[in-house]
Structures are given as structure tokens and as C-alpha cells.
Amino acid sequence: DRIARKRDREFSQFRERIKDADQFKVTESVFDEATYGALYKLVQDGHIDAFGGPISTGKEANVYTALRGDEEVAVKIYRINASDFREMGEYLEGDPRFEEVAGNKKAVVVGWVRKEFANLERARAAGVRVPEPIAVERNVLVMEYLGAEDGRAKRLAEVSIENPETAYEVVREYMYRLYDAGIVHGDLSEYNIVVQDSQLYVIDVGQAVTIHHPNSEDFLERDCENVAAFFNRQGVDTDGDQLLAYIHEH
Ligand code: ATP
Ligand code: MN
What we know:
Its EC number is 2.7.11.1. The chain is α+β, with helices and mostly antiparallel strands. It folds into 2 domains: 2-145, Phosphorylase Kinase, domain 1 (2-Layer Sandwich), CATH 3.30.200; 151-249, Transferase(Phosphotransferase) domain 1 (Transferase(Phosphotransferase), domain 1, Orthogonal Bundle). The chain has helices at residues 2-20, 22-25, 33-44, 85-90, 105-125, 164-180, 216-233, 240-249; strands spanning 50-57, 61-68, 71-78, 133-137, 140-144, 147-148, 151-152, 154-155, 183-184, 193-196, 199-202, 209-210. The strands form 4 sheets. It has a 5-stranded antiparallel β-sheet, sandwiched between helices. A hairpin with a 3-residue loop joins strand 1 (50-57) and strand 2. Helix 7 (216-233) packs across helix 8. The chain is globular. Bound molecules: adenosine-5'-triphosphate and manganese (II) ion (MN).
């Protein structure tokens, strides 16, 4: 009917507009048909008003800026084709919220993005600074943008830390709060912690698992090793075992 035809026409115009946009030229491979659909839905639902430039091109996902009204937001788009589904599926294991999708390819990515959204919500509720989750659609996550004066907020690995002892205590407290709320980050390091207005934020929680995951203790141990090693290099007297003990016994 007429309305459906109008909708189809609007969608194809939208898709052409995105395909032509300069910022997406280099990374066109991100976008399969269904991803255009997801972006279109996010625009229709008022979560995205204009697309900005790329912030990061990672192994599994690209991150872009966008405008939502006059607020800047971050849009993380998982590449369905590039993603290692089997590996991703393993991170859904033992999580009662997502277990049923762990075997199915497309469902795994969609489940993964929803898990990232849910983990951001849970981390926030637990008192851990993370980007505020805004919307999720298929393989696309919209969240609060963390910025600095000259672009995206810097990773902990990119800044010189004024007071490493205090920063370490903050990260330790975050790890404890996450664990207390039943989640383990699973990829925590100076690359997944960013600094905005002197505050530390944890990012990239897609792979975070619940403590019911069969490997959650191994992941926690690895996180502790990575975080402690980083702060040790900054002059803090700690190691992975001490950090792990703190999280277990606090
Ligand atoms: P990588 O494989 O590079 O770790 P990733 O797929 O794990 O990428 P993220 O770590 O979530 O994805 O994001 C990649 C980079 O994009 C981050 O290191 C950070 O610099 C930037 N970034 C992610 N989310 C945001 C955000 N909400 N605000 C500002 N910058 C962000
Ligand atoms: Mn990351």
C-alpha cells in the first residue's frame, strides 16, 4: 500500500545517504543490509539525529559519534561478518539471561549487544562509572559519549596519571562493585578504562560475564593481573594476587 511504499522509499534514501557519507566510506564493510535497517530504526525512534565521524575501528566493532538532539552520543556497531561468533557465544554461557542464544550465529551477536547494554545498566546500578546506555538495535548500541576537549576521552594507557595510588583504589573499588553485583569484566585493562573530567570510566563490557559463567574466576584473575601490572608500572605497590584477595575478601 501507499504507506508501505513511502516507508520503503524513505528507507532507501536513508541508506544511500549513509552509504555516501564520507565518514562511512572507509568502513563500509561494517554495514550489511540489516545494519542499515537497525540504524534507520534508531533514527526513526529518535535516538540518532545525525552521524558524526569514526572514533575507533576495532576487531569486532566500530565506534562512531552521532548527535541525538544537541547531545553527542557514541554508536558502537558490531560487524556481523568479522565477529568470531563461536568465541562470543562462549561468553554467553552460564548467563541465565542469554544462554538460549549461545549456539546461533546471528542471535549471538544480537545477544552480545544486548548483553553489553544490560551490563552497562547493571554496572551503573552498582555505582560504577560507565557510559550511560541509551538504546540497542540488532548489532548497534547507542550510549553516552565520553569526551575530552580535543575529541574522545583518553584511555588510561594514553594519559599521564597524576596520582596512581588513588586511581588504583578507584579501579579496585569498581572491580569490587562489579563482582558484588555479580559480574566480571573479562577484558579489563588500561585500554578499557577512560578518563573524562578526571573521573575514571569503565568501557567495553560486552564480554563481561556473570559470576555463573564457568570461567568467571579465571577472567577475574586475568583482570586482576592486568590491572595490577599496569598500576605496578605506575609505581603502586600491588600485584594480581593482592588485588584478587581484596575483591574476594572485601
Ligand atoms: P577494541 O578492540 O579496540 O578494544 P572494542 O571493539 O573492544 O575495540 P570498545 O573498547 O568498546 O570496542 O571501544 C573502542 C574505543 O572506542 C575505546 O577504546 C574508546 O577509545 C572508544 N569509545 C568506546 N566507547 C566510547 C564512548 N562511549 N565514548 C567515547 N569513546 C568511546
Ligand atoms: Mn576495548
